TrEMBL record:
InterPro entries: F420-G6PD/mer, Lucif-like_OxRdtase_MSMEG_2256, Luciferase-like_dom, Luciferase-like_sf. This is LLM class F420-dependent oxidoreductase. Signal peptide: none annotated. It comes from Mycobacterium rhizamassiliense. Pfam families: Bac_luciferase. GO terms for molecular function: oxidoreductase activity, acting on paired donors, with incorporation or reduction of molecular oxygen. Residues 15-317 form the Luciferase-like domain.
Length: 340
């Protein structure tokens, strides 16, 4: 894994429009490399316009935007505009979501997620190439077809490269595909350091090799849960919150393989059963200290930053720490330790 470039540190940008500009400006002022918006209760793209307007250096991106809720033409157009407005600082982070949400929340088709995502990215590149080079748009795939592009619908040229495309992946098939076509890999908080080294990295390298690409052609980003506090009481509160979050993720079938890697496959069954009964506190009590430190960085505000760096350095290229319940002054102190 990487041994040259320094480990980048990213932060979150709220997807509420009233908060995005101030938060992005604060990240840049504090020395962060990137800021990400999620797609939850608000659109993930609109806040990035404000983030780009109020920063000059910070990379801004979606982590993630739901690809299958949209089509390649719509996303290509948004990505082109945000790349131009940010002067080349936009990262398009895409994820699949899960089948029930795609079909029942977004009313969109679901099938063959890895193949569909590969085609989605390829279609966007074909559209961007047509806009950039003036080449004829003729993309015909199994899921998407784009064959009409007239001058009226072609955006103005821009001096920046095509947006970087990052893909969220946990499973080996999606991760391998990411290595073939993406500029970056977006990890998930419910992924351990061992899972990255034993599962994610080999799959990514297989994809890179099959596409004739190098490890330096893709950035690997990790999200890491962090529990810290300036007092014992604050640390205890944060630790309890992290246990609950790990229990929630562990109850989801998508992360069973992560637990199985550590010999905790049976825990998923129990967590899943309790989640259906709404026993959230009982679920958290099943996350012992070994599981806690496998999936999270835990410690005092003076030590947690260095611990986070040790966990990620040489394993991934950039990290997005998720501080549970910590105050902003506490996070600031921890990040100073991260950089030392």
């Amino acid at each position: 894994m990487p041994d040259g470039p320094r480990l980048k540190i990213d932060g979150g940008i709220p997807n509420q429009l009233t908060r995005a500009a101030e938060a992005a400006g604060a990240l840049e002022q504090q020395g962060y490399d990137g800021g990400w918006t999620p797609e939850t209760s608000h659109d993930p793209f609109l806040p990035l316009l404000l983030a780009a307007e109020h920063t000059s250096r910070l990379e801004v991106g979606t982590n993630i935007a739901v690809a299958f809720a949209r089509n390649p033409m719509i996303v290509a157009n948004i990505g082109w505009d945000l790349q131009a407005y940010s002067k080349g600082r936009f990262i398009l982070g895409l994820g699949t979501q899960i089948q029930p949400h795609i079909e029942k929340r977004f009313s969109m088709p679901w099938s063959h997620p890895a193949r569909r995502m590969r085609e989605f990215v390829s279609a966007m590149h074909a559209i961007w190439d047509a806009w950039r080079d003036g080449s004829k748009l003729r993309f015909e795939g199994d899921f998407y077809t784009h064959k009409i592009m007239t001058p009226m619908f072609t955006p103005e040229p821009q001096p920046y490269p095509k947006p970087k495309v990052f893909i969220a992946a946990v499973g080996e098939v999606m991760t391998e595909m990411c290595g073939e076509v993406a500029d970056g890999h977006l990890g998930h908080p419910m992924v351990s350091k061992r899972y990255i080294t034993d599962v994610t990295t080999p799959a990514l390298l297989r994809g890179l090799q099959s596409a004739g690409r190098q490890r330096s052609d893709v950035e690997v980003s990790a999200e890491v849960l962090v529990a810290t506090g300036e007092t014992d009481a604050e640390l205890q509160t944060a630790t309890a919150a992290v246990r609950k979050q790990i229990a929630f993720y562990g109850s989801t079938p998508a992360y069973r393989k992560v637990l199985e890697l550590h010999g905790w496959g049976d825990l998923h069954e129990e967590l899943n059963r309790l989640s259906k009964e709404g026993e959230w506190d009982a679920m958290a009590s099943l996350i012992d200290d070994e599981m806690l430190t496998t999936f999270a960085v835990v410690g005092s505000v003076g030590e947690v930053g260095a611990a986070l760096r040790r966990r990620c350095e040489g394993v991934v290229d950039r990290v997005l720490p998720i501080f549970m319940t910590a105050s902003q002054p506490c996070i600031t102190v921890a990040m100073k330790e991260f950089r030392q």
